[in-house]
Amino acid sequence: MKNEITVNGKRFGVSLTSSEIQKRVAEVAEQINSDFKGQEVVFIGILNGSFMFAADLLKSINLVSKISFIKVSSYQGTSSTGEVKQLIGISESLEGKNVIVIEDIVDTGRTIKMIANQLKQQNPANIKIATLMFKPTVYSEDVTIDYYGFKIPNDFIVGYGLDYDGYGRNLKDIYTIIK
Ligand code: IMP
Ligand code: MG
Predict the structure, then answer these.
(1) Which ligand has its closest atom nearest to the C-alpha of 138?
(2) Tens of pLDDT along 3-33?
Protein backbone atom coordinates (compact mmCIF):
# COMPACT_ATOMS: atom_id res chain seq x y z
CA MET A 1 0.00 0.00 0.00
CA LYS A 2 1.29 3.44 -0.94
CA ASN A 3 0.50 5.10 2.40
CA GLU A 4 2.27 2.37 4.39
CA ILE A 5 6.04 2.28 4.70
CA THR A 6 8.78 0.42 6.53
CA VAL A 7 11.32 2.47 8.45
CA ASN A 8 14.23 0.62 10.03
CA GLY A 9 12.21 -2.63 10.06
CA LYS A 10 8.95 -1.26 11.52
CA ARG A 11 5.67 -0.59 9.66
CA PHE A 12 4.14 2.88 9.68
CA GLY A 13 0.99 4.36 8.12
CA VAL A 14 0.44 7.96 6.99
CA SER A 15 -1.29 10.08 9.63
CA LEU A 16 -0.62 13.66 8.44
CA THR A 17 0.03 14.56 4.84
CA SER A 18 2.55 17.12 3.73
CA SER A 19 -0.20 19.57 2.73
CA GLU A 20 -1.95 19.23 6.12
CA ILE A 21 1.38 19.90 7.83
CA GLN A 22 2.21 22.90 5.62
CA LYS A 23 -1.21 24.46 6.22
CA ARG A 24 -0.95 24.07 9.98
CA VAL A 25 2.66 25.31 10.16
CA ALA A 26 1.61 28.50 8.34
CA GLU A 27 -1.21 28.97 10.88
CA VAL A 28 1.22 28.63 13.79
CA ALA A 29 3.52 31.19 12.13
CA GLU A 30 0.58 33.59 11.80
CA GLN A 31 -0.17 33.22 15.53
CA ILE A 32 3.46 34.06 16.34
CA ASN A 33 3.48 36.99 13.88
CA SER A 34 0.43 38.46 15.54
CA ASP A 35 1.56 37.81 19.15
CA PHE A 36 4.98 39.42 18.52
CA LYS A 37 3.96 42.13 16.07
CA GLY A 38 6.52 44.96 16.14
CA GLN A 39 8.94 42.97 18.33
CA GLU A 40 12.18 41.14 17.65
CA VAL A 41 12.37 37.38 18.25
CA VAL A 42 15.22 34.87 18.59
CA PHE A 43 14.16 31.38 17.53
CA ILE A 44 16.05 28.42 18.97
CA GLY A 45 15.56 25.24 16.97
CA ILE A 46 16.19 21.93 18.70
CA LEU A 47 18.20 19.58 16.49
CA ASN A 48 17.88 17.17 14.89
CA GLY A 49 14.13 16.75 14.87
CA SER A 50 12.99 20.34 14.36
CA PHE A 51 14.96 21.07 11.18
CA MET A 52 12.00 20.76 8.79
CA PHE A 53 9.47 22.45 11.07
CA ALA A 54 11.92 25.29 11.81
CA ALA A 55 12.63 25.81 8.11
CA ASP A 56 8.97 25.89 7.10
CA LEU A 57 7.87 27.93 10.11
CA LEU A 58 10.52 30.60 9.55
CA LYS A 59 9.49 31.02 5.91
CA SER A 60 6.15 32.34 7.15
CA ILE A 61 7.53 34.51 9.96
CA ASN A 62 7.48 38.21 9.07
CA LEU A 63 9.08 39.53 12.28
CA VAL A 64 12.59 40.89 12.70
CA SER A 65 14.21 37.65 13.86
CA LYS A 66 17.26 35.45 14.24
CA ILE A 67 17.52 31.68 14.47
CA SER A 68 20.06 29.46 16.22
CA PHE A 69 20.06 25.73 16.88
CA ILE A 70 20.94 23.57 19.86
CA LYS A 71 21.26 19.82 19.82
CA VAL A 72 19.88 17.46 22.46
CA SER A 73 19.03 13.81 22.54
CA SER A 74 16.76 11.79 24.86
CA TYR A 75 15.37 8.91 22.80
CA GLN A 76 16.77 5.54 21.86
CA GLY A 77 14.56 3.34 19.72
CA THR A 78 10.85 4.02 20.27
CA SER A 79 10.80 4.91 23.97
CA SER A 80 12.31 7.63 26.09
CA THR A 81 15.54 6.79 27.89
CA GLY A 82 14.59 9.40 30.46
CA GLU A 83 18.01 10.89 30.10
CA VAL A 84 18.33 14.31 28.49
CA LYS A 85 21.65 15.63 27.29
CA GLN A 86 22.52 18.95 25.76
CA LEU A 87 25.16 18.37 23.13
CA ILE A 88 25.64 21.71 21.38
CA GLY A 89 24.90 25.03 23.07
CA ILE A 90 24.33 28.53 21.75
CA SER A 91 27.00 31.19 21.80
CA GLU A 92 24.87 34.29 21.33
CA SER A 93 23.46 36.21 24.33
CA LEU A 94 19.71 35.91 24.95
CA GLU A 95 19.64 38.63 27.62
CA GLY A 96 16.43 40.64 27.29
CA LYS A 97 15.34 38.83 24.09
CA ASN A 98 12.04 37.27 23.13
CA VAL A 99 12.98 33.62 22.73
CA ILE A 100 10.84 31.03 20.97
CA VAL A 101 12.04 27.44 21.21
CA ILE A 102 11.16 25.29 18.19
CA GLU A 103 10.70 21.58 18.93
CA ASP A 104 9.60 18.68 16.76
CA ILE A 105 7.59 16.93 19.47
CA VAL A 106 6.84 17.26 23.17
CA ASP A 107 6.27 13.88 24.78
CA THR A 108 7.00 13.61 28.54
CA GLY A 109 8.22 17.21 28.43
CA ARG A 110 11.56 16.41 30.05
CA THR A 111 13.52 17.73 27.08
CA ILE A 112 11.63 21.00 26.85
CA LYS A 113 11.77 21.51 30.63
CA MET A 114 15.54 21.06 30.65
CA ILE A 115 15.97 23.40 27.67
CA ALA A 116 13.66 26.05 29.17
CA ASN A 117 15.59 25.92 32.47
CA GLN A 118 18.94 26.31 30.74
CA LEU A 119 17.74 29.17 28.55
CA LYS A 120 16.21 31.00 31.55
CA GLN A 121 19.69 31.30 33.04
CA GLN A 122 20.51 33.74 30.24
CA ASN A 123 17.76 36.14 31.39
CA PRO A 124 15.68 36.42 28.22
CA ALA A 125 12.65 38.76 28.36
CA ASN A 126 10.51 35.66 27.86
CA ILE A 127 10.64 32.11 26.56
CA LYS A 128 7.83 30.61 24.50
CA ILE A 129 7.62 27.03 23.28
CA ALA A 130 6.52 26.12 19.75
CA THR A 131 6.26 22.40 19.00
CA LEU A 132 4.95 20.77 15.87
CA MET A 133 3.61 17.70 17.67
CA PHE A 134 2.32 17.45 21.24
CA LYS A 135 1.39 14.28 23.16
CA PRO A 136 -0.72 15.82 25.95
CA THR A 137 -1.60 12.48 27.60
CA VAL A 138 2.08 11.78 28.35
CA TYR A 139 3.06 15.35 29.19
CA SER A 140 3.95 15.69 32.86
CA GLU A 141 5.80 19.00 33.20
CA ASP A 142 4.66 22.50 34.13
CA VAL A 143 6.22 24.36 31.19
CA THR A 144 3.47 26.00 29.11
CA ILE A 145 3.30 24.77 25.52
CA ASP A 146 2.49 28.11 23.87
CA TYR A 147 2.22 26.99 20.25
CA TYR A 148 1.62 23.55 18.84
CA GLY A 149 0.82 22.16 15.42
CA PHE A 150 -1.02 18.96 16.30
CA LYS A 151 -2.10 17.22 19.49
CA ILE A 152 -1.67 13.47 19.03
CA PRO A 153 -2.21 10.27 21.05
CA ASN A 154 0.72 8.46 22.66
CA ASP A 155 1.82 6.58 19.53
CA PHE A 156 5.26 6.62 17.99
CA ILE A 157 5.55 8.73 14.82
CA VAL A 158 8.19 9.40 12.16
CA GLY A 159 8.68 11.80 9.28
CA TYR A 160 9.05 15.53 8.69
CA GLY A 161 12.17 15.62 10.86
CA LEU A 162 11.08 12.97 13.37
CA ASP A 163 13.09 9.76 13.42
CA TYR A 164 13.08 6.13 14.40
CA ASP A 165 16.69 5.48 15.44
CA GLY A 166 17.86 8.14 13.03
CA TYR A 167 15.79 6.99 10.05
CA GLY A 168 12.72 8.56 8.47
CA ARG A 169 13.53 12.22 9.05
CA ASN A 170 13.45 12.87 5.30
CA LEU A 171 9.80 11.83 4.85
CA LYS A 172 7.59 14.77 3.90
CA ASP A 173 4.49 13.26 5.54
CA ILE A 174 4.12 12.11 9.15
CA TYR A 175 3.55 8.41 9.80
CA THR A 176 2.30 6.53 12.88
CA ILE A 177 3.61 3.14 13.92
CA ILE A 178 1.35 0.17 13.08
CA LYS A 179 1.01 -1.99 16.18
P1 IMP B 1 10.35 14.21 25.88
O2 IMP B 1 11.58 14.69 26.57
O3 IMP B 1 9.82 12.94 26.48
O4 IMP B 1 9.27 15.27 25.77
O5 IMP B 1 10.79 13.76 24.43
C6 IMP B 1 10.98 14.66 23.44
C7 IMP B 1 11.94 14.14 22.39
O8 IMP B 1 11.78 12.73 22.18
C9 IMP B 1 11.62 14.78 21.07
O10 IMP B 1 12.42 15.92 20.85
C11 IMP B 1 11.89 13.69 20.07
O12 IMP B 1 13.22 13.75 19.66
C13 IMP B 1 11.67 12.41 20.83
N14 IMP B 1 10.32 11.80 20.57
C15 IMP B 1 9.26 11.79 21.39
N16 IMP B 1 8.20 11.15 20.84
C17 IMP B 1 8.62 10.75 19.61
C18 IMP B 1 7.96 10.05 18.52
O19 IMP B 1 6.78 9.65 18.55
N20 IMP B 1 8.74 9.85 17.41
C21 IMP B 1 10.03 10.26 17.30
N22 IMP B 1 10.67 10.92 18.28
C23 IMP B 1 9.98 11.15 19.43
MG1 MG C 1 14.64 13.11 18.53
Answers:
(1) 1
(2) 899 999 999 999 999 999 999 999 999 999 9
